[in-house]
Amino acid sequence: MTERAVWRPRWYLWCALGLGSLALLHAHLPWLLQGYSIYPVLVVLFALLCLAAALWELPPATMACAAIALTIFSGSWSYLGIPGVPFDRILLAGVALALLLGAPGASRVPRIRVGGVHLLLGLTIVYVAGSAAVAGTLTSEGGFLSLLDEVGAIPFLMLLLAPAIFAGARERNMLLVTLVALGGYLGLTAVFETVGPRSLVFPHYIVTSDAVTPNTQAGGPFRAPITEGFACFACAVACAMAFAQWSGLRRTLAGAVLVLSGLGAFLSLERGVWIAAAASVVAAGFAAPELRRWLAPALVACSLLIGGALLVSPTLAGHTTARTNDKLSVWDRQNQTAAALRMIKTRPLFGFGWHDYPNSSTAYFRQAGTYPMTGFSTYNDPLPLHDTYLSYAVELGLVGAALWLAGVLCGLGAAIRKRGPARARPWKVGLLALGVFYCVLAAFNPLQQPFAALLLWTWAGVASSSELVNTPRAAPLATTA
Question: Helix axis angle, 450-463 relative to 388-417, nearest 10°?
Fold first, then answer.
């Protein structure tokens, strides 16, 4: 692999970056630079500049893994006392700049290759941006951020960059370590949040959020059981891969975190998460011959784990029973589905505009004869449509929804079927499980937080990498099933 020319910024450029950061703080958060608070701000800013200089010398995978880990706090930075500083997005921008400007850590990164899938996903972003512009939501905070994170422009960019960033075995192992560590944190947090002791939940805003909107579900740092369930399941898949590849104490640790993160997915108490998890395990087990003999033992182990947890904790058993018998969420979905179908009938081709469902949907709700009218949006409580496919059909029209769905299926399918090194095969099998989980969950819940899309498309990029030379090529999953 040929090395690229590298660029190391001079000391005065780092100073200029520091002064620019101070100018931004003065413009948007002036109170941080008043009185004695200016001194700790300057110390922190200097430390961050030193950290940025160190990261510039490291492989871009370092920043990418840190960004994925910090995305769990996206939208909650203010609760951590860090208003207006989205470190996850800053790190992702750093990854792109490192590749574009030729950072020393990126000197041996393979060239980025643009394919038809990337063009299709780029066209999807352009379509959604046009829809938002017409609807007047492009300049709103919710509309613009959802365009970046949910559809989303940033995850699609990671699909393009990840094959180069994670081409080496060391970089992919770095991602595995990140997801195993994340799974341990999320699993423990889910247990402490639902079973106790709650004093061990960190950060404390999770407990505070649960107190404001009391429920028995584990929402974790996302404050959303749906995303918590997805994240725990994704980490469980990574733990299974690590358990198969690692040895010694690391292998034992990966197995323990696999159990813990799987339990965390269950503690989300989201029926959509349970169904998606079962579907993805079965799909991966039947698609990959090497996993078929583990399918039945895995299902039995999951049943014993969940059954044991319910027997040990009567409180958890009560919460699970209450959640299973909850009719309110069923009524919400029935009312929302009926309203969405009326909206699609009204504007079938191009929809009502991106991120406009909460504003336009109330007029399309009707009182049903057998259940109460719930699930509609109000000004103070703009509820999302609990079906991602219907949501896109309502807001983007059938044209936009078909374009988005084609991009998802082609992007994930191409990454799974693409021939590549044998060491990429576990990532392909993992992507199959994660893709099935994502597509099934999308039919039950809105996938609005950035973590799910970011990890899914980064994983797809890793699975599609073909830069590991001198290794046997693996056949596509479809031909080995």
Answer: 20
β-strand partners of 473: 421
Q: CA geometry: angle at 59 spanning 53 and 65, to 5°?
A: 95
In the chain, the amino acid numbered 76 is S
User: pLDDT 10s digit of each residue in the chain, 481 long?
Assistant: 556 678 888 888 888 988 888 888 778 777 777 777 788 888 888 898 999 999 999 999 999 999 999 999 988 888 887 776 788 999 999 999 999 888 888 888 888 888 899 999 999 999 999 999 998 888 887 888 888 888 888 999 999 999 999 988 899 999 999 999 999 999 999 999 888 788 888 888 888 876 655 557 888 899 889 999 999 999 999 999 999 899 999 999 999 999 999 999 999 888 889 899 989 988 888 888 777 777 777 777 777 777 777 777 776 777 677 677 677 778 888 888 899 999 999 999 999 999 888 888 888 988 888 888 887 776 666 678 888 999 999 999 999 999 999 999 999 999 998 877 778 889 999 999 999 999 999 998 887 788 999 999 999 999 988 655 333 344 444 433 3
Helices (H), strands (E): how many in the chain?
Answer: 20, 2
The CA-atom distances, in angstroms, between 160 and each of 317, 448, 449, 471 are 44, 21, 21, 23
Task: Provide the phi-psi class of 335: left if phi over 0, else alpha when psi is between -120 and 50, else beta.
Answer: alpha
Triad 432, 436, 442: Cα angle to 5°? 145
Question: Taking the domains of the chain in order of start, what are their residue ranges?
Answer: 11-106, 116-327+386-480
Q: Is 327 left (phi over 0), alpha (psi -120 to 50) or beta?
A: alpha
CA distances from 176 to 87, 125, 281 (A): 21, 29, 19
Burial class from Cβ neighbours inside 10 Å (0-12, 13-18, 19+) for residue 349 reads exposed
Torsions phi, psi of 351, nearest 5? Answer: 70, -170
Interatomic CA distance for residues 199 and 214, integer angstroms:
16
Residue 57 three-state SS: helix
Task: Please give the structure tokens belonging to residue 262.
Answer: 């799987």
Structure tokens at 136: 């007047």
> Where does residue 48 rank: exposed (0-12), middle (13-18), buried (19+ CB within 10 A)?
middle
